[in-house]
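Reader question, answered in our methods column.
A reader sent in the components of a multi-part assembly and asked whether the whole thing could be modeled at once rather than chain by chain. We filled in our standard form and ran it. Here is what they sent:
COMPLEX SIZE: two components
ENTRIES:
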Amino acid sequence: DQQVKQNSPSLSVQEGRISILNCDYTNSMFDYFLWYKKYPAEGPTFLISISSIKDKNEDGRFTVFLNKSAKHLSLHIVPSQPGDSAVYFCAAVAGNNRKLIWGLGTSLAVNP
Amino acid sequence: NAGVTQTPKFQVLKTGQSMTLQCAQDMNHEYMSWYRQDPGMGLRLIHYSVGAGITDQGEVPNGYNVSRSTTEDFPLRLLSAAPSQTSVYFCASSLNRGIQYFGPGTRLLVL
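And here is the structure of the entire assembly that came back:
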């Protein structure tokens, strides 16, 4: 049973446009959410996170939005750059548990 | 500060062979974990440790053993390799809740 779902396996956008990656979750105990970025042949790297007490967190070109009532979060990348082409994983954690629950990832391709 | 290091980067085994995947971190992180990544399966937790001397199973622990004798090292042992263990293995460590730092991965092929 997938508690964190990324329903779009892939996404393609033009350079300079907005990329929106979506993530849904089912466990209402999740209170901290993270996005990781992964290039081929490398380990995932932390990108941005958000606590459940917030509905938005911004870091440069990256913004994460959280809609608790819908159990939905999204990552916005503006403007998208070819170097953003990677697999993006959504992850969630509940309480003091450090175990991350991962989505299956969305492969983003930013075309020049 | 090297972060999380993993060795080897690539390994080929024959069915039934044993090996140890090494993982080390120099950030004094208490929490360490091992994942495997397979196509279409995302990252699946194999084993994890919340500190030296303490380990626990993740969602796919069968066929793997771990130990944590020091804060820095968290080796993953395959006792009798099987083709189903062909995968990319990632080690990660964490100080703060949720934010994990990953190694570069070990690609394992079991023939």
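What stands out: Residues 37 and 43 of chain B are 5 Å apart (CA to CA). Chain B has a mean pLDDT of 94.
Send us your own complexes using the same form.
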